[in-house]
Amino acid sequence: MSSSSVVLNTGVQMPLLGLGTYKLRGPEEVYRAVDAALAAGYRAFDSAAVYRNEADLGQALRELLPKHGLTREDVFITSKLGPKDQGESAMDGALHSLSQLDLGYIDLYLIHWPGTQGLVVADKRNPGNRAQSWATLEELHRQGKLKAIGVSNYTPAHMRELMQSCKVPPAVLQVEFHPRLCQSELRSVCKEYGVCFQAYSSLGQGELVTDPAVMEVAKNCKRTPAQVLLRWAVQQGVPVLPKSSNPDRIQENARLFDFSLNDADMDRLSSLDCDHKYCWDPSEVA
């Protein structure tokens, strides 16, 4: 698995490819997607409290792992603390995720968002809430309930703030990343601190698959635009989390490790960078 995984600063291997489960709702849809993903070779699954599918994901895995000849230790499960639980409710929030998934432990647990639900950006309570959430994650990590801990949607300033106060450094930063948002400053901060930089929204919420440059690269290497966009990331050592409920698409997105892009294609895709965010903007969070 080493060629298709990265080693976190905890020493654990995390697959480069995981199934994103945002917008997967209901036990049937989750079960179908997880079944297709396991069959296609996915060994990582990314959820969050705000996705409201942790219980369905846990149930699907408990039922499907034996079918695919796998055990709990063969898969890597990520979930995230909801913004409503930031601060003094962090322990309740994290324990709720553990209980909903009901898989014994969580491989990676992230603070989903640097702000707190209901507080404006400039509210002075946000930094304290972030610190309190992190201390809670550190405690659950010490207990072995969260094998690795990290953050999502943090800016360079948030990362530096965390690194100055943490006892356990974050293992992962998960953010939006694709050719139109190359995140060079964040990537260099992660490299400096030994934090794994992980991508979500690799397809730019579907808009990048029709970009003329992406389509031309895909045509030249006889691959789909989605495969090219995902390969662009993993070829840089950046883990990806494509999300789909379509079994054929799930299988198609997994075919990333039997081809590579040449330097000219990599450069051409990277030249699309224009600092464009398709998702929320964490720089608007104090």
Automatic annotation (TrEMBL):
The active site is at Y51 (proton donor). The record marks K80 as: Lowers pKa of active site Tyr. The keyword tRNA-binding does not apply. Keywords: Oxidoreductase. The keyword Hydrolase does not apply. Residues 17-272 form the NADP-dependent oxidoreductase domain. Pfam families: Aldo_ket_red. Substrate binds at H112. InterPro entries: AKR, Aldo/ket_reductase_CS, NAD(P)_OxRdtase_dom_sf, NADP_OxRdtase_dom. GO terms for molecular function: oxidoreductase activity, acting on the CH-OH group of donors, NAD or NADP as acceptor. Belongs to the aldo/keto reductase family. This is NADP-dependent oxidoreductase domain-containing protein. It comes from Amphiprion ocellaris.
